[in-house]
Amino acid sequence: MSALKVTNLLTNVLTGSGAATPLNGSSHFAVFVKWPTGTSAGSVILECASDANYAGTWSNLTTLTWAAANSQDSWRGTGPFGAIRARIGTTVVSTADGVSVDMWEN
């Protein structure tokens, strides 16, 4: 079994997109969206492409929508995918910190 790798896809954001992250042959991964205290709305879209440098429209894997402050949402995927990225679909509303997204892969 290979070692677990954790990659940050978004950190403390209200809008925008994260960098494309190559999966380098990883076939099992989980994505965790952390909705901090103070959030009251928003959504995160996970997308994939065959290559991290793909310039066209990426494929939508799933959309994770805010349900409660101080909570986490997760999504598990099996590949192979060339690359993954997270982007804010609906602006995150927060009186404090923004949303963060981490990917765990092996």
Give an account of the 3D structure.
This protein has 106 residues and is mostly beta strands. The protein has a single domain, classed as Jelly Rolls (Sandwich). Helices cover 0% and strands 60% of the residues. The chain is built from no helices and 8 strands. A 4-stranded antiparallel sheet has the order 1-8-3-6, with no helix packed on it.
Q: What is the topological layout?
A:
Elements: E1 5-13, E2 21-22, E3 28-35, E4 39-49, E5 59-65, E6 71-78, E7 83-94, E8 99-105
Antiparallel strand pairs: 1-8, 2-7, 3-6, 3-8, 4-5, 4-7
Essential attributes:
106 residues, mainly beta, Jelly Rolls, 4-stranded antiparallel sheet, 0% helix, 60% strand
Distance between the termini: 8 Å
Instruction: Kindly estimate the percentage of residues that lie in beta strands according to DSSP.
Output: over 45%
Query: What is the topology, as strand order, of the major beta sheet?
Result: 1-8-3-6
* Rg result: 13 Å
DSSP helical segment count: 0
Count of strand segments: 8
Query: Could you say which structural class the secondary elements and strand pairing correspond to?
Result: mainly beta
CATH class call:
Mainly Beta
Summarize the structure.
This protein has no helices and eight strands. It is mostly beta strands. The protein has one domain: Sandwich (Jelly Rolls).
